[in-house]
Amino acid sequence: VQPFVFGEIVPIAAQLQELAPPDAVVISSATARLVQGYFACQDMELHRLRDKAEPIHLSRVIAVSGAQSRLDIAETAGLTPFVGREAEMAALLERWAQVQDGFGQVVLLSGEAGIGKSRLVQVMKKRLEGTYTLLEFRCSPYDQNRAMYPVIDCLHRILQWHEDDTPKEKLKKLETAFAQCQIPLGETVPLLAAFLSLPHPDDYYPHLQLSPQQQREKTLGAIVTVVLALASCQPVLLIVEDLHWIDPSTLELLTLLVDQTPAASIYTLLTFRPAFDVPWGNRSYLTHVMLSRLPRPQVEQMITQVTRGKPLPNELFQQVRDQTDGIPLFVEECVKSILETGLLQETGDHYELTKPLPTLTIPTTLHGSLMARLDRLGTAKSVAQLVATIGRQVPYALLQAVWQHGEEVLQRELDRLVDAELVYQHGMRPQATYRFKHALVQETAYQSLLRHTREHYHQRIAQLLVEQFPETTALSPELLAHHYTEAGLIEQAIPYWRRAGLLALEHSANSEAMSHLSKGLELLKSLPYTVEYAKQELELLLTLSPVLIAMKGYMAPEVGDVSARIYELSEQIGEKPQSFSVMNGL
Question: Which intervals hold domain Orc1-like AAA ATPase (predicted)?
Answer without folding.
Answer: 81-263
